[in-house]
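B., you asked whether I could sanity-check this one before it goes into the benchmark set. Here's the sequence:
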Amino acid sequence: VRLEESGGGLVEPGGSLRLSCLASGFTFSTVFMTWVRQAPGKEQEWVATIYSDGSASYYADAVRGRFTISRDNAKNTLYLQMNNLKIEDTAVYYCAQRGDRPRGQGTQVTVSS
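And here's what the prediction gave me:
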């Protein structure tokens, strides 16, 4: 299993970012996928999950209505569109197969004015 996150950066409050996760080493189209995040000094926090075929998704209360998880199974890629970012969204973001630990390096998202 190989997962490579990208797309993080520094953004002001209210801004947007789109994260990507390129998957390889498994049959991506058959697996539920998740995004999780970890802020400094805090426990890892689940953010969102999407069905293997992309037909449904669900979100943590903290991000519902602001974040959108999606996937392109033809490209083996998972996405997280993040809008109206808040300072408390600052964290390292990881993608993972549902039920598995993150296996990539993550991508840093910093929301600051």
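One thing to flag: The two ends are 37 Å apart (CA to CA). Otherwise nothing jumped out at me.
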